[in-house]
Amino acid sequence: MVVVMKLKHVDELSGGRKRFRRRYPKAVARALGDSVFQVAMKAREGAELFTEHAKLLTEYEKIVDKARRKAAEDGQLSPFEHWREAVKEAEELVAGVSGVNSEDEARQVVGDDLKRRGADPVLYRAVMSPEAEEPPITMLDAKEMYRTERMAGAHGRNQKNRLERVCKRIESSLGSLDKLVLVDLKREHARKLRDDMLAAKKKDGSPLSSSSVRRELDMIRAIVSIAITEHDLHGKAHNPFDGLEVAKANAAPDTEWDKRDPLPRDVILAMRNRMRDKLRSPALGLMDLSRFCAAPSARLSHLSFESDGAFPTQC
Questions:
Q1: Which of 142, 244, 140, 239 is nearest to 192 (CA)?
Q2: Are 227 and 233 in contact (CB under 8 A)?
Q3: Which sequence spans correspond to the domains of the chain?
Q4: How far apart are CA 140 and CA 142, in angstroms?
Q5: In DSSP terms, which residues pair with 234 in a beta bridge?
Q6: CB 189 within 8 A of CB 174
Q7: Which of 49, 85, 110, 250 is the S-S candidate for 25 at Cβ 3.0 to 4.6 Å?
Q8: What pTM, to 2 d.p., does this model score?
Q9: Are 271 and 279 in contact (CB under 8 A)?
Q10: What would the pLDDT profile of 232-248 be if each residue is shown by its tens digit?
């Protein structure tokens, strides 16, 4: 019996030239900062083409394997996501085998090849045992689900930075996100995180205010809630941050800065239009103070001006 592997991931270029081109899995692309592995092939036909294709396939898999391992070690790739991507890749590899009598034979061919080359053990397991139980959903999966569902349309870095800051607080208190299994989260985890946040210090050495802690806990509660819904974990996991009280006897009091609300949107837009369209010196419209005043606790006294007249000290 002759087993033939289809020559996949090869494009035909002008002049009869060949190109090996294969997309990286999503998590690997995120870790590498590149979405595609592509190389112009030297061979054009015959045994040399098959040999070069095999070498490039091996090189691709080494890159993917190394990136996955590093991402997993760095906590950037959850066990669940790793498994899902491995299963998808395994199905592609098995589908590329011809000349066999059954799917089991195809899986054995691919599995033997992966084992011989020392490929990713998770990929090998996905080829040989595709029905194996999936790894549990972790807080790292919850973070990525929140990023996808809640922040897909977000502009700028503020929200992303806030998410990263909140997740760092979780890790410093409870451990690595990829080790925090959602169904194992208890109320004691929520209380510990809250207490650690209330005891945390800002850059100036002052403690976080209770309102700041409350806002960040609101985001954490939303992260867990979305993951429970999107991963169908209702009845298996509960959100330990629901109804969690923040106020404690030793908590830092809310400051006037924390309590101050930004200007209403209609006021900001009116200010912006007036400054842009009705100034005696249009050049001043380039300095859009309404954007500054949109921030909570913004004060013009924070800026330095030179003028014959007096400036108000507060927006």
A1: 244
A2: yes
A3: 4-128, 139-255, 260-315
A4: 5
A5: 237
A6: yes
A7: 85
A8: 0.61
A9: no
A10: 999 999 999 999 988 75
